[in-house]
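Before the break, one more example. Copy the sequence into your notebook; we will annotate it together after we see the structure.
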Amino acid sequence: MKKSIKKIVLAYSGGLDTSIIIPWLKDNYPGCEVIAVAGDVGQGKELSGLEEKAKKTGASKLYVADLRREFIEDYIFPTLKAGAKYENAYLLGTAFARPIIAKKIVEIAKAEGADAIAHGCTGKGNDQVRFELTIKAFAPDMTIIAPWRMWDLKSRDDEIDYAIAKNVPIPVTRETNYSKDKNIWHLSHEGLDLEDPANEPMYDKILELGVSPEAAPDKPTYITIGFDKGIPVSLNGVKTDSIQLLETLNKVGGENGIGIVDMVENRLVGMKSRGVYETPGGSILYAAHQALETITLDRDTMHTKQMLAGKFADLVYFGQWFTPLREALSAFVDKTQETVTGEVKLKLYKGNIIIASITSPYSLYDEAIATFGEDDVYNQKDAEGFINLFGLPIKVKAMLDAKRNSK
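Here is what the structure looks like once it is written out:
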């Protein structure tokens, strides 16, 4: 079987896992060509020097695909519009980055006539599922190589030893060996002291996108975000490109200690894991979008959408982006967003996102009806009949219970 595999396309990040996978593939699939593919979803400086590194460790070439705009507009924004948070906390930064990267890898693998696609996901994690479900969606017959499920290496320390033995330069040491994932939406931290939920995160040591709330300025920062049909399109009254918008919000949010989440989550494979997530710009967008929906969606639509948001988050987290159900839910969400247009002013202060004002041309809020002052619109006497009918089942049950208990 190994002899039939002559060309492998590898999902490549230049991190510890994928750095050692290239020589491992060369050792275990003799004579094979390894083509590395890095999807640029906003890793920034992490992509610098990748081509030299990939070729030096045995790859024949490296593709770097700029996926940032597509990532934001076709994956992040649909999830934002859905209001999807996994287990009501995680803003899915790693989860929705995997399908777009895997899709691009399949495109390149087909163009290169590759026999197999390899990835560096561990056998304990969620990413192996996310990558492979996407590969199955676009190349159902493609051979998939997952070294973590095959090799004798059992830990990240073993990987470091292997890298040293193979003279592979790696971006971590044993002391800074956190497992991280960075893109334009977030940065995640796992491993080392974070593996014990009893340990408070050492924020001064691990934070990279911003500061802790304690270290944030004592003066609040005000920003105004404009939305058009649920999509953020402007910042402080100025139309803004999606990439620039997110980068700016990450900066201002990070400076104010926004978007730090420390959580224990339930992985798809069945275990619990603990991680710290930095999502400053994303947290701001979620807060603003949710606030705008409070005045632009009717009650029943909002409540149904909130109920389905959990299912949408599960689909994204479980790697089921390219499925009929996710597409159907997105169609529902898009319909609900037709009136989610307006501006939200926020006050950012020491890790807090405080709503300052909400305006929309489609607002369903009517001050004349909601007022506690005198009005000619709402007849308060009507409430009596409404309550009598609404509470009729409760009253009937109580009457019958009393009648039965009296016997």
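The longest strand covers residues 33-40. Residues 369-405 form one domain. Try to locate both features in your own notes.
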